[in-house]
Amino acid sequence: MKKILMIGKLNSMMKDLGDYLHHYFRVQYCVDNSNHAVGMIKVVEPAVVIVSLVGLFDVDKELFVSLRDDFPKVPVITIGTESERKELLAYYDGGQFSHLVRPLENSDVFAEVCRRLALDEGKVKANAIVVDEGKKTVLVVDDNAAILRSIKAMLEDKYTVMLANSGMQALKSIGKKHPDVILLDYEMPVCDGRQTLEMIRADEEICDIPVIFLTGVNSREHIEAVIKLKPAGYLLKPAVADKLIANIEKALGNEI
Prior knowledge:
Blueprint: E1 3-7, H1 12-21, E2 26-30, H2 34-44, E3 48-52, H3 62-70, E4 76-80, H4 82-86, E5 97-101, H5 106-116, H6 121-132, E6 137-141, H7 145-155, E7 160-164, H8 167-176, E8 181-185, H9 193-202, E9 211-215, H10 220-228, E10 233-236, H11 241-251
Parallel strand pairs: 1-2, 1-3, 3-4, 4-5, 6-7, 6-8, 8-9, 9-10
Helix pairs in contact: 1-5, 2-3, 8-9
């Protein structure tokens, strides 16, 4: 599968778009500054870079200089309003950059990715059905973007991975597609893991989805509070791939 690196603030638009594209491509997120993004490009070696211009100027514009000068063969698709693009017009002259005006549909971005990579849309969708067939879906919920990226990288070869950066975003994602297992950060602002679990269990349609807590606090009192909620499992951060997979498989009824 072709790799896509999505750069920008991890808002609902980026999250929904990433979930959509993940059915057809391998998607990585980068929500930090330009230096971090450049490092991610070198590691991931994406076929396409997608940049959300929403709030981008709160960081800097060095990203565009690096994309043009250091990665001239990597197609770049920007998403934003015409006014957001206005300050970057010089970068679109050479053909490396193309722009999609929001609001737009996820399918519009998919079509543009296929166009830039000279891929047949129908064939990409047909292959995606084969690739995803039989894979269980894991929803990872954590307010830390770096942790989301790390866990996604650990699991994406074995599972279809959905990401949410808050409890409320998790519930929205579950409403669109029910995951088979949920990995839930216990310590989150506003709506923490306990509150999120309570809302999941209060909904008859999703109350049976196994929830595995992830916690960064290993005090006895804290662990006892977690266990009292009777999750399908709990793991201490930082997560380790083999333990994550073992707990997921156990929650699915597949001991390994």
